[in-house]
Amino acid sequence: MTSKTVLTSPNADLRVISSDFPKEEFGTKETAALTRDLIETMRVENGIGIAAPQIGVHKRMIIVDVGNNKPQAFFNPKITSKSFTKIESEEGCLSVPGVFGIVKRHRSVTVTAQNIKGLNETFRAEGLMAIVFQHEIDHLDGILFIDKVLRYTTHPKL
């Protein structure tokens, strides 16, 4: 496991739309290493989620860990349905250090993704988990939380 450097805004690589994670890369040593590196980077940075583009890998892959200390990798994640209800919550981002703001997101989402073996999974995420999935999937589309912030709770140094 190697902790990687997290790209920070305004690095243009954070605005690149990521490509689908290729089928032929599931089950490879390289994918296992990338997964370990992302988990280690997220832990070193004290994050609860990280997307591959944040370390310069433009593939649709995210890691999510919201307190159970069992980070999971999700490949080609898609939000397939969203709650009508939205909630406002404070967000930060490893790629925008020291900046926090209020963002409005869906209270719950249904996510379809592939696991590390390439098998499809569909599940419902609510509350903090839903927020993290929306935040990390935004990274895959070149979107940062600062693009959606309603108001800053710290002064941005952008």
* Shape, per Cα inertia axes: globular
What do the pLDDT scores average to? 95
Question: Helices and strands: which structural class?
Answer: alpha+beta
CATH superfamily: Peptide deformylase
Q: How many domains, as an integer? A: 1
* % residues in beta strands: 25-35%
CATH architecture: Alpha-Beta Complex
Enumerate the strands of the largest sheet in spatial order, edge to edge or round the barrel.
1-2-3-6-7
Question: Any overview of this molecule?
Answer:
The chain is an alpha+beta fold and 158 residues long. It has a single domain (12-152), classed as Peptide Deformylase. The protein is built from 2 helices and 8 strands; from the N terminus they run αβββββββαβ. The chain has helices at residues 29-44, 127-140; strands at residues 49-51, 61-64, 72-82, 86-93, 96-106, 108-114, 120-126, 151-152. The radius of gyration is 15 Å and the shape is globular. The termini are far apart. Removes the formyl group from the N-terminal Met of newly synthesized proteins. Requires at least a dipeptide for an efficient rate of reaction. N-terminal L-methionine is a prerequisite for activity but the enzyme has broad specificity at other positions. Keywords: Hydrolase, Iron, Metal-binding, Protein biosynthesis. This is Peptide deformylase. Pfam families: Pep_deformylase. It is an enzyme of class 3 (hydrolase).
